[in-house]
Amino acid sequence: MALKSRNKSDASFSMSSMTDIIFLLLLFFMIASTMSSPNDMKVNLPQSSAKTATKAKIIKVGITADGQYSIADNGAKPMAVQFDEIEPYLQAAHAADSTTYVALYADEMVPYKDVVRILDIANENRLKLVIATKVKEK
């Protein structure tokens, strides 16, 4: 009796499915890492070692620790204002000179929501805003 040879199946492995899985995992981790935000950062503001100055027109918006607002236009004496008066004042100043900067002078004890309200006004009106800090003492 004659023995017949069997057809042996090829033991090769297709790598295309493996590379698909690797690219999907890579994509997943790239998206997941951009969505997570670190919560353990300690922010101690407002101090800075950088000293920058500008020659453009600057409107100073001040917030005291007890929540009172003030505006000073280009080195003038600060005048106390209500929060509702800030946006029209800044809009008028920006309409007169589009290179105007708004410098926010907020006490370090001011609640962050008060700072964000001024940031929102600047953002909505496309104003250039800088946050003033004091120089860090060595």
Automatic annotation (TrEMBL):
One of its GO terms (biological process) is protein transport. GO terms for cellular component: plasma membrane. It is a single-pass membrane protein; Single-pass type II membrane protein. Signal peptide: none annotated. InterPro entries: ExbD (IPR003400). It comes from the Bacteria. It is found in: Cell membrane. Its main location: membrane. Coiled coil: none annotated. Keywords: Cell membrane, Membrane, Protein transport, Transmembrane, Transmembrane helix, Transport. Transmembrane segments: none annotated. GO terms for molecular function: transmembrane transporter activity. Belongs to the ExbD/TolR family. This is Biopolymer transporter ExbD.
